[in-house]
Amino acid sequence: MGLGEAVHEARTRTSQLILYRDGKRPISVDLDKLTAGISSQHVEILRGELTQLLYDATREGVEYVFGDSIATLDDDGDGVNVTFEHGEPRRFDLVIGADGMHSMVRRLAFGPEESMRRPLGGYLAVYSMPDELLLRNRMLLHLKVGRSASTYGVRQTGQARACFLFRRAEELQYDYRDTEQQKRIIADEFADYGWEVPRLLKHLDAADDFYFDSITQITLDSWQRGRIGLVGDAGYCPGPAVGGGTSLAAITAYVLAGELAAARSDLPSGLRNYEQKIRQLVDRSRAIGPTVMKTIIPGNAFAVRAVPIGFAILPHLPAWLQRRVWSSNGVGKALGSLSLPDYADLVVTSPAPFRPRGG
Ligand SMILES: Cc1cc2nc3c(=O)[nH]c(=O)nc-3n(C[C@H](O)[C@H](O)[C@H](O)COP(=O)(O)OP(=O)(O)OC[C@H]3O[C@@H](n4cnc5c(N)ncnc54)[C@H](O)[C@@H]3O)c2cc1C
Questions:
Q1: How far is the centre of ligand 1, averaged over its atoms, from the C-alpha of 294 (Å)?
Q2: Are residues 314 and 327 in the same domain?
Q3: Which residues contact 178 (CB under 8 A, 6 or more apart)?
Q4: Relative to the CA of 163, which ligand 1 atom is closest?
Q5: Which residue has the CA at smallest separation from atom 46 of ligand 1?
Q6: Which of 216, 232, 259 is the C-terminal boundary of a domain?
Q7: pLDDT of the residue at 319
Q8: ∠202-17-287 over CA atoms, to 5°?
Q9: Confidence at residue 359, expressed as pLDDT on a 0 to 100 scale
């Protein structure tokens, strides 16, 4: 899409990670050196920035509808009849659910979320707050057994974000629409934590962008059915905050577009080819969550000791060894398991404006 340079320019520029543990000296990690071994193209970008870049690049040729949701779907074999919560009913050749972990398209076409959830036993909360610690391009991370707290500066807003992670063997029962209840869960869970947490919790009540969810994977056997398909978190969320989800969503969206273009008018067969091409990548991505959770929410005292040592050593290894370490972990193994097909011959450089069928 020609967006590589713009994505790189919008990167977060968080360059220093300081790791804290109770009773130990903090360890400073150079994040540029730590992530250099992943790939020369590794970029960290805020989700909102990436969304804006994609939107700006496509808004001329794509019809966007905001503030609405699909209400019903009916695939009659030749097309899909769609009703909306607000807009008029319409008919489409194809419906792709790219609506995230709690996808409505998935629920309507593939069944209730409860049957496909695989909770990994972790919870996370994130919210914005003033940058009282003058973090700018730094991230502070404190680890304890079963819990971690972190905060990092956000260059684009001049603010900071507070992030809390904790483990639970049993699933918590809470109302996913009740933000105040979720804030209380975090306040109670971290009330005795110490470190900088009281300073972070001070801003919890006022936070208007508070996010709370369980670290849960979505596992389905199939991501296409007739003329309806799923892509990204909607189809195979590897777990929020454990990494890899964005790369997985971007790679699979690329394959989806390529296979639909290659199938020309036989869209259901394009969907089947897409599923077959990404199956191994999706299967392997399920290893990402459990692996990364061991680092970001250490499960025992040994892990609390080992994680900072690993982070401190890795940047000093020779480049070839760094690459080998990264490619052997869950994320590297999963994302390296698909060599991207080349669809260059199918690219249409100036797309015709989108014209929906009927409606
Ligand atoms: C706190 C946090 C930290 C994360 N950190 C990382 C990380 O470091 N690295 C990484 O790779 N991944 C990370 N992830 C995961 C990453 O954000 C997702 O994997 C990625 O955004 C998936 O992209 P997507 O387009 O499939 O879904 P989403 O980004 O979730 O987009 C879905 C879109 O659908 C819209 N939508 C939802 N329901 C409806 C509806 N009914 N009608 C219309 N629209 C709807 C939503 O508003 C949203 O815009 C993190 C996630 C969280 C929550």
A1: 22
A2: yes
A3: none
A4: 1
A5: 99
A6: 216
A7: 75
A8: 95
A9: 41
Q: What is the pLDDT at residue 158?
A: 93
Q: What's the total number of domains in the chain?
A: 2
What's the distance, CA 191 to chain centroid? 28
Pocket test for ligand 1, best of 12, 233, 335 (most atoms within 8 A of CB): 233
How far does residue 125's CA lie from ligand 1's centre (Å)? 14
Determine the pLDDT at residue 73. Answer: 98
Same domain assignment for residues 168 and 278: no
Sheet holding 211-218, edge to edge: 27-30, 16-20, 138-144, 147-154, 159-167, 117-129, 211-218
Q: Is the CB of 156 under 6 A from ligand 1?
A: no
Residues (pLDDT < 70) of the chain are 37-40, 328-332, 350-359
pLDDT at 175: 93
Question: Residue 207 is part of which domain span?
Answer: 119-216
Q: Write down the pLDDT at residue 309.
A: 83
Task: Determine which residue's CA is closest to atom 50 belonging to ligand 1.
Answer: 241
Does 249 contact ligand 1 (Cβ within 6 A)?
Answer: yes
Ligand 1 neighbour 82 (Cβ under 6 A): no
Whether residues 211 and 63 share a domain: the answer is no
For Cα atoms 19, 302, 294, give the angle at the middle one, nearest 5 degrees.
70
- Site to probe by mutation for ligand 1, drawn from 45, 95, 99 as the one with most ligand atoms within 8 Å of Cβ, is 99
**Nearest 5°: CA angle at 212, between 179 and 158?**
95
Domain-embedded: residue 351: no
The residues pairing with 96 across neighbouring beta strands, listed in sequence order, are 229
Question: How confident is the model at residue 313, as a pLDDT?
Answer: 83
Ligand 1 centroid distance, CA of 232 (Å): 8
For 274-296, the pLDDT digits (tens) are 999 999 999 988 888 888 888 88
Model's pTM, two decimal places? 0.92
CATH number at 82 reads 3.50.50.60
Strand 90-92: give its sheet, edge to edge.
Answer: 70-75, 80-84, 90-92
> CATH number for the domain including 184?
3.30.9.30
